[in-house]
Amino acid sequence: MLTGTNLLWLGDFNQSLVLNEIRSKESISRVELAERTGLTAQTVSNIVRRLLDAGLVLEAGRRSSRGGKRATMLRLNAESCYAVGLHIDPARTTLVVTDLRGRVVTRVSRRTPAARGPGRVIGALVRAVHQIVERSGVPADRVLGIGVATPGPIDPGGGLVVEPPNLPGWHSVPLRESLESGTGLPVVLDNDATAATIGERWAGGEARSADMAFLYFGTGIGGGLVLGGRPYRGISKNAGEFGHITVVVGGRECRCGNRGCLETYLSPHAIIDDAARRRGEEPPRLPRGSAATVEYYGRVCRAAAAGEEDALAVIEAAADHLGHAVVTLTNILDVPMVVLGGWGISGIGDLYRRAVTEAAATQPIARAMRKTRVELSITGDDAAAVGAASMVLHTTYAPRFGGPAG
Amino acid sequence: MLTGTNLLWLGDFNQSLVLNEIRSKESISRVELAERTGLTAQTVSNIVRRLLDAGLVLEAGRRSSRGGKRATMLRLNAESCYAVGLHIDPARTTLVVTDLRGRVVTRVSRRTPAARGPGRVIGALVRAVHQIVERSGVPADRVLGIGVATPGPIDPGGGLVVEPPNLPGWHSVPLRESLESGTGLPVVLDNDATAATIGERWAGGEARSADMAFLYFGTGIGGGLVLGGRPYRGISKNAGEFGHITVVVGGRECRCGNRGCLETYLSPHAIIDDAARRRGEEPPRLPRGSAATVEYYGRVCRAAAAGEEDALAVIEAAADHLGHAVVTLTNILDVPMVVLGGWGISGIGDLYRRAVTEAAATQPIARAMRKTRVELSITGDDAAAVGAASMVLHTTYAPRFGGPAG
DNA sequence: CATGATTACTAAAGAATGTGGATAAAGACA
DNA sequence: TGTCTTTATCCACATTCTTTAGTAATCATG
């Protein structure tokens, strides 16, 4: 249900809008802001003054003349505030500190000590957050909050990790509350694929479309959608389960109970099994999300990237399935951009990108009306952690419509 | 790019919001409106006064007491304005007049005289519009405009029918301009599937979710999306091409150039061919979108509905494919409601609905988190025509955000 | 039947916002 | 030096929503 709006909201909205425009450019003048936002010069002037007072924006010299008075350029003060991003994956936990632009200032990655149970892990996380903030040299009062990305279904409202399939023993852990009381900072929580999507949009600026689908390759395959400029999560926060697009009817059995899901052909486990079988070996029974899995999968990807025949054949077969899934996706959603990211594509990203680009250019029904650009994530392997930090910035500074935005 | 907002817009927005709430209920009090919209009682009071003055809303008695002063109930004045809907299908042209609620006042259907070429058809359409308005008994000055739904890709901005695959000879016809100058009424134009979606949302009120997918069964299979309460058309207005979801990799060849599209198993043509083959007959080579096709297809559907074994088997096989497509759809979009509509499901709607309900309850990954409701269109066989009329009402009275809403 | 509590609605003043027109400042150009 | 263009700000004004206070209708209760 949409909710009504008021004046305060209107002011905030326009302010966020202006900030967003400044963020998307290296530098921009007031007049250009007025043109791009549709606001009057006077209004922009007032809003910019507020932003300057708040320290979020800086004046940055003057542009070379275009005939009259030279414009005062404005640029984002990326050092005005920061956010902590935390990605808890079954194998590794990654922490980052990013500035307001979404650029990584400091990064730490360590093995996830899940076996010790949630209680002790949370204690360790609180210490890790304090440590990385200290190490980054960022003034503590400029840290806006902590974003947390975890795999699997969560309850973003209550801040619980509901039943992460890859974190045994973590049933309904009140992660948000614990971290908030432990660090004194506000915490936002979402699943890793959604976080990575928001991060891509935030850090990507103009290079990332207002409508895009992000495919996140982790232990499984998830994803997220940005539609009309804002994240779309779906009614139960489960939109973007691209890993369960059916690519082969009656195909491989999936842990979701269905058959032929994309994930059963592209997850690290599937790739590992395919690679082993192709060499006539018995598929190794590695535990889901273990360090050994990551290791083995990395070897296959590197081999494929190096051109080793068997590995390449396996990855190319996977890429073919991925292409079909993206075609279905663009037929349904008509997005102009598909971004591939997550640690699961490191090494093979370009192989995937080429295959998907080819499929998207030749198969969707509307291929004549729009080109679908296929890009690799600019946030790299740490997409989820950077995205988690971006969620904090996004909730604080993104222009939002009234009502419970999806 | 989002655009800035101003005060006039804010007022209009809140007014639309209130009108929308009134529309969605049979009757509602000012206090309830305040609760539901988040506006203050005073603001609601002011907005309601404007709506009463404009004649869009009526006071309708008082509610039985809840302890204090009895509330003055408000209800939509459905007779305050009307819209004309026009659906130009290859086989038939349907005209409707609907009231502000989206209810059909008058309806006319006739054979589409496409063979005579666009020029003469448009002249006939102008006359038909005048006729139906007169016949409906609606005061001419209360008709807000004309909505036109046509199959295939169009350019809603320029008002052209670009290259409708089923209307030979109609290349870039300036339909909007011609109709506007011929009738003196504003014209909005969109494809039939999108129109049907908007109509379903408008006429459905509370019974239709703010997030839903509408599958439109006509000559082909199209559809539309409502996400976050507003229609989502995609970047090139081609979202919702559900007919081209791949359901069988390497399957039947589709006119889109791809293989195994849903449409190749569920379109009237596909069903006709399947039914003929099953009876050992040669598939009849009927022209696409011809009256003979509609006739033959109707026979198969009626036979299936009557329980005739061969026809039933064909429809059940089709329903199975449909189920798979909807599972993919819900995995991607996490919508709580899927609506089936269009003349293509008349007779077999319940068969399809049962199959899809079953699939949606057992196969999507998030099936435990949300139930997907599967419903049949409330606008019936005339979904596209009613939807076309609703587009007029929607563009006039739906709350809209600033900027180019998708 | 008077009193007070509850619910529904409205009037008037106040605060926040964007708009439009005028003004000021800085530089380009003849 | 003077005029024009571009950029940015100042001030009066209109519009919106909110706050505060007040009116109106109904019910419960003694």
Characterization of the model:
- The structure is a homodimer of 406-residue chains.
- Chain A has twelve helices and 15 strands.
- Helices cover 41% and strands 19% of the residues of chain A.
- The longest helix of chain A is centred in the C-terminal third of the chain and has 25 residues, at 309-333.
- In chain A, the strands form four sheets. In chain A, strands 6-5-4-7-10 form a five-stranded mixed beta sheet, sandwiched between helices. In chain A, strands 13-12-11-14-15 form a five-stranded mixed beta sheet, sandwiched between helices. Chain A has a three-stranded antiparallel beta sheet with strand order 1-3-2.
- Chain A is α/β, with parallel strands linked by helices and 406 residues long.
- Chain A is globular and about 75 Å long.
- Residues 402-406 of chain A have low confidence and may be disordered.
- The first copy, chain A, folds into three domains: 13-79, Winged helix-like DNA-binding domain superfamily/Winged helix DNA-binding domain (Arc Repressor Mutant, subunit A, Orthogonal Bundle), CATH 1.10.10.10; 81-199 and 384-402, Nucleotidyltransferase, domain 5; 205-381, 2-Layer Sandwich (Nucleotidyltransferase, domain 5).
- In chain A, helix 4 (118-136) packs across helix 5, helix 8 (268-278) packs across helix 9 (291-305) and helix 10 crosses helix 11 (349-362).
- Chain A has helices spanning 7-24, 30-37, 41-54, 118-136, 175-183, 192-204, 263-266, 268-278, 291-305, 309-333, 349-362, 383-397, and strands at residues 28-29, 57-62, 72-76, 82-88, 92-99, 104-111, 143-150, 154-155, 160-161, 187-191, 212-217, 221-227, 230-232, 337-341, 373-376.
- In chain A, a hairpin with a 3-residue loop joins strand 11 and strand 12 (221-227).
- At the A-B interface, helix 1 and helix 10 of A face helix 1 and helix 10 of B.
- Chain B binds a DNA duplex (30 and 30 nucleotides) through residues 4-8, 10-11, 14, 29-31, 39-46, 49, 62, 65-72.
